[in-house]
């Protein structure tokens, strides 16, 4: 049903899903009629007809969003309970010490706002220190720093500030909860820090938390918008970054609205970079955070922010899903090349998320940029596309099970072969067991991405560079 919800000056070709307006009967009708504009929960131009395959995906997307919103509160409450229990165990030194403290009446209760409180993701990998063996002249430095920032973005504001200041010895510029105009609440998180020793500012977007229904809704929302000359882009990710309802991407955000991620971060970057002509910035994120990191420069290009794009050193994403179609990818390639931006998309083993949404005739999502793929031995190589690009190909079932078995065994030996800092706890081992059934779940955890950037050879970056850049990088290392 066409409406004024989408500003046609922003995008004349779009499909916006509105699950709040979809009753079950109305939702099922989309499976029996190719004219999707007749459905009141679909906002698109009149006359658009879609084949059954795409209508089925729309049906699943809307149903998933409705279910997520229905369970949002109990899911959040369950997640809070799990995190409280994990932190209760940690604060009291483990289960048996907790029992002892209970008998003594001296149980230490965790404080959710403290620097010691870890999220569910943080409990999977508790490492806070940067690898002392990777200095700023090492070719792995930015990737190793970026993945730790991406991992830290899942934590509370106090934790992030403490890590940045006390452990990494960098300037903390702020940790924020940004407004999502479509969800009508602050559901997008990011933090910003600056390393003045290297004249670099790092912007880290938070990924999808396991018990956050709003973030999951952004992931499964397959609404799309076609930017003029730039192709189709995943609508859920655009909304999380700061798309304005009924306005699209105006050059400036309206003053009467809470700050959205794109506008607030753009403003802060301009202020900081204007104070230091040598400084540049990096964008990073894991999972959903990676999608936001790569879409940020796309909107900068839309707004012709050439000065800021010229100061963008690189984009480092980990387990990033696909964000647009082939035309969008080609447009971003031109933007990246024009401004000399490094874009590295890291994929570990059988991580499911980089293989979604599908690259097929139904969804037509495409990756772009440099893909650095690591196998389960943390051997990296540059590839055009990760193996089993849509994940569910049956010929990969046996290799996935074998790999999951190896990862489970490795979890008990890695601290002896690689060092105590690589020790894996019970929570991650539980995920390794899940991997025997669904290999893509444990492979998405930040733990393996941190390991890959530390244990993988730095030579993988040399294969990406041209001869002149290779010589410069080798001279820098020396």
From TrEMBL:
The keyword Hydrolase is annotated on this UniProt entry: yes
InterPro entries tied to this protein: AB_hydrolase_fold (IPR029058), Fungal_lipase-type (IPR002921), OBL-like (IPR044819)
GO molecular function: triacylglycerol lipase activity
Any single biological process term in GO: lipid metabolic process
Pfam families: Lipase_3
Sorted UniProt keywords: Hydrolase
Domain of life per record: Eukaryota
Residue ranges of every copy of the Fungal lipase-type domain listed in the record: 202-359
This protein's name: Fungal lipase-type domain-containing protein
Natural source organism: Buddleja alternifolia
Organism placement in taxonomy: Eukaryota, Viridiplantae, Streptophyta, Embryophyta, Tracheophyta
